[in-house]
Amino acid sequence: MVPAPGGPAMIPAMTGDDRPVRFGLVGYGFGGRWFHAPLLAAAAECDFLGVVTTSAERRALVTADHPAAQLFDSLEDLVAAGAEAVAISTPADTHSLLTDQALRLGLAVVCDKPFALDAAAARSSAELAAERSLVLVPYQNRRWDSDFRTVRQLVADGVLGTPTRFESRFERMAPDPGPPASGGGTLLDFCSHLVDQALVLLGPVVRVHAEWRLRSSGLDDDVFLALTHADGTPSHLSGSWSQGAPGPRFRVTGTTGSYVVGGDGRIDGQEDALLAGHTPATLGDRWGAEPEEHWGRVHRGDAGTVVPTVPGAWSTLYPAVAAAVRGRGPVPVDPQDAVATATVLDAARRSATEGRTVSLPA
Hints:
Elements: E1 21-26, H1 30-42, E2 46-52, H2 56-65, E3 70-72, H3 75-80, E4 85-88, H4 95-104, E5 108-111, H5 119-131, E6 136-138, H6 146-156, E7 163-173, H7 185-202, E8 205-214, E9 220-229, E10 234-243, E11 250-254, E12 258-261, H8 269-275, H9 280-283, E13 296-299, E14 305-307, H10 317-325, H11 335-354, E15 358-359
Parallel strand pairs: 1-2, 1-4, 2-3, 4-5, 5-6, 7-10
Antiparallel strand pairs: 7-11, 8-9, 8-15, 9-10, 11-12, 12-13, 13-14
Helix pairs in contact: 4-5, 5-11, 7-11
């Protein structure tokens, strides 16, 4: 059985230091440029020093996007400049290597998904951080998606009764080339978030069934996971970069109703806002707010009642990391949560490859 995320998290020793945490970023591809740098630069609790990249093209982008940011050739150079923490947003197959290197240099680390290629590597990094009493945070920003926050609130408030099925999809509208080979395929890309959300909502997993289609590149796509949680509740999760008719983002069914939202391939407006050049600093109270046309409905065998979507809150993750580094709060995502997610993904890989359901030991 895989333990559920969200248990006791590491709280570093308390300090009286309330200065912004000096943060660097490794990588300035799509994720680094749009999902990390703007949020780091907008967080008052973080002092965004600059970016480690040796690409001339990406160095030019950094300078254009963040004129005050420094450029570094290596993690060692970042440390020499006074960094205390680093965000890693590089190809998936480099995550564990760079995470461990940064930890050995004494840096707190935020690592993008997939946190590691398998559970063994995830566990090793978590153990290294614990040995060195350093903050290590898997970048599971999708816990703070507007629609998932709404799902959690509806379940917590008992609006749907007792959950009986959780359906969740990350499906991009075809044609979409999807991530490159270094991205690790759809199972590691989209399903890192999908599985994490299922564990947060419904707890430990005891059985995993998976199906996928292999592209000509050899990468997996059109991934379907059927998880059975310890209490017997099923989660059905789908990830695809090539779906002509994306299904609902969520359909969460309970004993007294179902919540349905999405269906056009759109995944949270915070992504759209960042790609349009907005940040939490520029939008203020409007950050994360979803327009009414994207609100979901609670159905009870009828046309449904519109439910206002809870605002998204990606903007809270880096301030929470900074608080953890300063000893003023727990990490926002515990590294053991990434181990739990990776354990499910390992089982899914075996299931899809071997054509069988995989049981997870207690």
